[in-house]
Amino acid sequence: MKASVSLDSLWGFIQTLSLNNQKWLMNKLNENIRQQEEGLAEYIDKEEILAGIKSGLEDVKAGRTQSFDEFMKELDNDAL
Question: Would you say the pTM of this structure is higher than 0.85?
Answer without folding.
Answer: no
